[in-house]
Write a sequence for this structure.
């Protein structure tokens, strides 16, 4: 029967590009058309960038663009998580496969938490939104750290040049992500404590870097799955 072949690396790249492009659109649109309200804080001091929550959830059409992108990318991202488990089974020691399963479930929970905080705004249900955000941040950081550890220290077969490049980029992105996350916490506390002009925008900038490095980390699947294909046919979905 008919069989559609999709290069898996390109699918992973396109999947992550959806939230990336929508994020860029939301920030730019908020600056151009909702600048005063998007950068307003309780301190009432000047700022030059909106926070992520204001940019993607505070106004229309940004809210709708972001929600559509997250909804579309959710299912393909679950396929990527499943493919990663198959990938881990092929390159890691067998006795560590349970850790690979944990990494994949962290990836799944991160995706579900992202959907939750996207479709349940802070204004609608602050408690649920906050829990989804905390879950997203914890699982995303743990997933990135565990992935780097497994692919560096638990391989039973050496990586090829492309996989080695992918792992090197993963470590660089993880370092920038963790540093930016720590800086975001610092500037958020400083903003609430001293209400200095521009500090909240520096916090927002750190937020941007955290989100962008997280997306870029997931984009490294493009190299991890080079040469592999997603087969879609009458019998379902298969990987090769």
């Amino acid at each position: 029967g008919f069989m559609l072949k999709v290069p898996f690396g390109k699918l992973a790249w396109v999947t992550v590009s959806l939230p990336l492009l929508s994020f860029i659109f939301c920030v730019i649109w908020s600056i151009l058309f909702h600048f005063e309200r998007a950068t307003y804080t309780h301190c009432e001091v000047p700022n030059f960038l909106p926070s992520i929550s204001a940019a993607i959830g505070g106004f229309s059409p940004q809210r709708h663009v972001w929600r559509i992108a997250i909804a579309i990318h959710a299912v393909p991202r679950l396929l990527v998580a499943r493919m990663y488990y198959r990938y881990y089974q092929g390159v890691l020691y067998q006795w560590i496969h349970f850790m690979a399963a944990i990494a994949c479930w962290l990836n799944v929970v991160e995706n579900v938490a992202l959907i939750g905080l996207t479709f349940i705004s802070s204004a609608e249900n602050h408690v649920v939104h906050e829990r989804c955000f905390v879950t997203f941040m914890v699982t995303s950081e743990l997933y990135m750290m565990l992935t780097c550890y497994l692919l560096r220290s638990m391989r039973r077969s050496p990586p090829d040049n492309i996989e080695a490049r992918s792992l090197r980029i993963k470590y660089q992105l993880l370092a920038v992500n963790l540093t930016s996350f720590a800086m975001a916490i610092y500037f958020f506390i400083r903003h609430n404590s001293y209400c200095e002009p521009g500090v909240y925008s520096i916090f927002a900038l750190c937020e941007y870097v955290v989100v962008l490095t997280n997306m870029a980390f997931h984009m490294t699947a493009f190299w991890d799955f080079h040469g592999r294909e997603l087969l879609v046919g009458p019998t379902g979905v298969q990987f090769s």
Observations:
- DSSP finds nine helices and three strands in the chain.
